[in-house]
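Hey L., structure's done. Input below.
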Amino acid sequence: MRWLVGWSRAGTAHRAEPEATGPTVQPVGAQLLWGDPDPLWAVGDWRPDEVRLVWADQPGRAGATTVTRIAVLGRCGATDDQLRTGLLAARGGALRHLTAWPGSYTAVAQIGRRITIAGDLAGARPVFHAAWAGGTAYATAALPLADLVEAQLDIGHLAALLACPDSPEALGDGTPYVGVRRVPPGHALVVRDGARDISGYEPLASLAVAAPQLDPEQAVEGVRDALVEAVRTRLAAPRHLSAHGSGVLDPGPVPGMGPAFRRAARGGPAPGLGADLSGGSASGTLALLAAGLPGIPGTPYGHGAGERLLAVTFNDLAGNDPATDSGRAGALELERARALAAGPRMRHLVVAAGEEALPYADLETGPLTDEPAPSLAVAERHRRRLVTGSADHFTGHGARQVLDAHPARLADLLLDRRRRHLLRPVSALARADGPAGRPFFVPFTVYRAARRLARTSYREGLEAAAARLLAPGFADREQGAGLPGAVDASLAALTWCRPGPAARWLTGEALAEVSARLQAAAVRPNGLPQRPGEQRAAAALARQGADLRILEQAAEVRGQRLHAPFLDNQVVRACRALPEALRVQPGARASVLRAVLAGSGIRDLPPGWGATSHASHQAALRAGLRAFADPLAGLFQTPLLADAGLIEAQVVRSALHAAAEGAPLPLDGLAELIAMETWLRRLLARRGTCWTGVTPHQRAVAGGVSGRAGLRGVSGG
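Output:
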């Protein structure tokens, strides 16, 4: 886990040295980037080329020097001169310049006593802050700040995460820790003499007047340029050997194990570049771009442009039954992956895994992450794939959220009076569920739902969602709804706010607290609200970015870096420029990525490339429930979620048993419950703290949790 942390305290503007009031508070194992009075540290296994400091001091009025500097942590494609230019622009208030370079990074600019920390657009590199010592402490992780301010758990926030995970209105700017706040995506934290301010750096579009639409070809070219530049930024970085692979000799032939699997057994990734290659359009696009772009620098072994990309394909032998639709779809994806990797610039590795790589495997031994997320349930599954990869590994996470059209965007088209563009998407929905779905009535039903959303104000939508959570029989209706088809799922998404799949298992008290949060958000001034489609798409992207951040921590392989170019700021901006009419067309993601590859000189793609399938994910979740039924039942024998008043243990145990038997229940909702219960147990079993120089105190909860009083002892050590 890598993070940065710093603070700004009031009343230290003219202090030459900090007051000697006791031991100095500083993070454990930190690298000091700059010192008092407003220190900044980088914590964790940062590579030397991932931490950059650039100075641009300017003379002050009294002849002294005003400190003007910037720290960029992560993978940034800007030169030092470009960093200085952006720093000087930020001095005048143009904060967007700190986020306009290719790559994925966090920029911290200090201009005198004013410190600006810019978050990203996707939420994959968030910024947190908390009041501390008469000022403000900030970090790119929430748990260290909770340690610093000795925060308790925020049970209401945990309830909102389960009830409405896709609704920022319910979550607000909170975190699982009381007093630790999150900077929203697309905003920057500005701190001066301990006082903090949150400033948005993206231009806001009017709700009454549509933003000018780019020509489709020009917009696709922008996506291509942004993706190519994002991949080039990673290719231009120095190559690294993992800590486990350095100086370790291959033990030689082992029956049934190749060199890649022997290296994975030792615990380290391969040197050089790698990529996921699932056979889908997103991972395939990144793998082909990374393997085909020229100008790759040398590796630790001295190779130059002849470096080959390691393409890793995960073959789920336990979750994909060849006799089922998901199994047949998985077999087709594997064939497409083999066809894509047939070129001389790739070497293909198929990772076959059985029951040990199903979801919910090894929940007892995983690391503690910064926050809870659904990815905790599948962390071991991903780790077995990533450990066979490379030190720099590309992944296609986020492509669906930045390229696909959220169903609520149909309402945006109606707001713009573009009714004719609804014909193709609603016709595709009519065919999605087959003859049983009564396709004749689907276009009218979808159109009415989109028109209703277009005519519903933001406040009315939130109030309706709050009332739905409080309606008598909400849990019974949700539990009897079953698994929705494509049409039902799209109709449910045509709203300003909707309950998540785990809401049906929450207690009435937890639902009431979330409803109160929504009602408060409905009457709170919100500036100029976005269109419903834009707002719901941005919320889905923020959730994906947060989930990927936690997945990186939960499935971390020492010495490896995961690269998700689709979540880079410049790629997100380029994808947002795609016209709405292009987004809502069936197969839009595959067509855009096909054009990206064609513009890069890659046109020979296997048949079926771009096909989408979610059945394999659901099949794996159900297989994991069956395989680990006993450990999961034990997990909810005396769950901490029940002690906190969020669930009834017997109800969840019954749901787990029914889902394992094949009942039509939302498996993603059960995964969220299991992930949060797992995270709580890891958190409360933790000892120690992220800081030195703090007063020792007990972290673990003695005697359990006492109802709604909250989970005590979250921080300290």
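Residues 532-554 form the longest helix (23 residues). DSSP finds 26 helices and 21 strands in the chain.

-- N.
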